[in-house]
Specification:
Structural class: alpha/beta
EC number: 2.7.1.130
Oligomer: single chain
Shape: globular
Number of strands: 11
Number of helices: 9
Strand content: 15-25%
CATH architecture of the largest domain: 3-Layer(aba) Sandwich
Distance between the termini: 21 Å
GO cellular component, one term: membrane
InterPro entries: LpxK (IPR003758)
CATH topology of the largest domain: Rossmann fold
Keywords: ATP-binding, Kinase, Lipid A biosynthesis, Lipid biosynthesis, Lipid metabolism, Nucleotide-binding, Transferase
Helix content: 25-40%
Radius of gyration: 21 Å
CATH class of the largest domain: Alpha Beta
Order of helices and strands: HEHEHHEEEHEEEHEHEHEH
Number of domains: 2
Protein name: tetraacyldisaccharide 4'-kinase
Length: about 300
């Protein structure tokens, strides 16, 4: 979501956003964002103390006054000047960072595992109690295309019990292409896995989402190896992966393909060379707001800038 908002601000508004992230698990998400936004006006600030990180970026780049931001939208796109001064700060996983004031609070809910055991960290997956929806401005149910309408209704009902006036949006990650490391800039069609043997290897918060996306691309068979979120692959992991690949090769009589997410690639792409001679593909996706509500969602963002 932070990438979706930052792209929109930079491309549609000409405003330079600052993304503030803690840099969990070796900073895999921060590395991915830095790679995606290289050569743009988007800035990535990494650090546990996000107020201090923001202050250093504002000191270095300057800032745009809030009343001037909306005027950027009125410029003719062909003549729009992208300012290097920071116009908006976007806090990734920022709801619990209560020391910083904010103009808009968006809560992301994973439809595949919305509440877990309903306990807070470290005893469960929740960063905030469900009652925190009461101070949110919007909720986005992510991966909503991968669950049933009945499950979606239950999730919406739980959210509205905490805040019955809260706008709720649905989103998904839409696959766009693959790339084969280290050739990041060469886009490969999603059809490259059609009727292939695929091993999904991931260390992300929702590995089911990767597997389900790949299954929809028509591979002959999909296997999986799931690791905990932000897991740093070690030599023993590589040995386990190669052993599974050899098993699949012997079972089906053809060499399987390894599929990973961009987050897994950016965590430590050098170790992927250890998987030779097997082919590694990295799946690239973009967030999409569903049910034709993207314009409505963007209006919510614009109101927060006014």
């Amino acid at each position: 979501m932070v990438e979706f908002i930052a792209n929109w601000l930079a491309n549609d508004f000409g405003v330079s956003p600052l993304i503030l992230t803690r840099g969990y698990g070796g900073g895999d998400e921060a590395k991915m964002l830095q790679r995606h936004f290289i050569g743009t006006s988007v800035k990535i600030g990494v650090g546990a103390n996000r107020a201090a990180t923001a202050a250093s970026f504002l000191h270095k780049h300057g800032f745009v006054y809030p009343l001037d931001i909306v005027s950027f939208k009125k410029q003719i796109p062909e003549r729009r000047i992208v300012s290097d001064k920071i116009g908006v700060a976007i806090l990734d996983d920022g709801m619990q960072h209560v020391s910083m004031s904010r103009d808009l609070e968006i809560v992301m809910v994973n439809a595949l595992s919305p509440w877990g055991n309903r306990h807070l960290l470290p005893f469960g997956p929740l960063r905030e109690p469900l009652t925190s929806f009461s101070r949110a401005n919007a909720a986005v149910i992510h991966h909503s295309d991968l669950v049933s309408d009945q499950n979606l209704s239950v999730i919406k009902s739980t959210i509205l019990k905490a805040n019955r006036f809260l706008p709720i949006y649905l989103s998904t990650m839409t696959p766009t292409h693959f790339f084969k490391p280290p050739r990041v800039s060469i886009q490969l069609s999603l059809e490259v896995v059609y009727e292939k043997i695929v091993l999904c290897v991931s260390a992300i918060g929702s590995p089911n989402s990767l597997v389900q996306k790949i299954q929809k691309m028509g591979p002959l068979f999909v296997d999986r190896l799931d690791y905990s979120d932000h897991h740093q692959f070690q030599n023993e992991d590589i040995m386990r992966i190669k052993a599974r690949l050899e098993h699949l090769k012997n079972k089906f009589g053809s060499k399987p393909i390894i599929v990973m997410t961009e987050k897994d690639y950016d965590r430590d792409h050098k170790i992927l060379g250890s998987l030779e001679p097997f082919e590694v593909l990295v799946l690239c996706c973009k967030l999409k707001i569903l049910d034709h509500k993207e314009d409505e969602f963007k209006k919510l963002l614009i109101c927060s800038l006014s």
